[in-house]
Amino acid sequence: MMNRFDSSVSLAGLFSGPNRKPTLILLLTPILLTVFKYYGSKQFYLDNIQPFLSAGNPEWAAALYVFASSFVLFGLVPALIIKFVFRESFADYGIRVGDWSFGWKALLVVGAIYAVSGYTSSKMPEFIAEYPVFKGAGESGVTFVLHAISYLFFYIGWELYFRGFMQFGLRTSLGDWNAILVQILASCLVHIGKPASETFTSILGGLIWGILAFRTRSILYGIATHWILGISVDAFIVLFPS
Q1: What pTM was computed for the model?
Q2: Max CA separation in the chain (angstroms)
């Protein structure tokens, strides 16, 4: 029994051959998620970075910090790994147009559903307390547009990591459904601390975006619809309050 146990946890081959990619993805994921939760948050910026700065709007800067953290940790880092470690094409991870004939229809339907969902969420006190990340987003139309554009970078990083790097990256070793379920697990966990209803619905959202990514062979439609959901919540809270 001991020999069997020793063999089962052997490190031989863990970072070589077919094990190399899934090992790196699954080890990197808890590291990046933990870094994001502890050091990529708005509160971390306000507590640890803002005190050393004397100019600018702290709330706006904190929001940009969150968006940039997602883009760098979840977007740029895996992109560099895909390019220089895995030496693979970005297209293999869904960074392409994919099946446009299906994608644009899905974008319209899913985007409309998420816009309605954004309206519903915007009426809940816990969402009003949480969003927008930049509380001054509704100060003017121009301010909101700038907020919306910068918010897009958050979702580019988010979708590239969970539906791109993780899901497409684990597809060969785990199979389609298990790759989807693993990225759902990871993306749900990083939602903990958000409103409970958002954390629970992130499971359904992860399933929808995961299926959409494989069906269209692209993460672009997931980026667009996820951004529509997020910016709809913000718009209904600050621009069209009840």
Answers
A1: 0.94
A2: 68
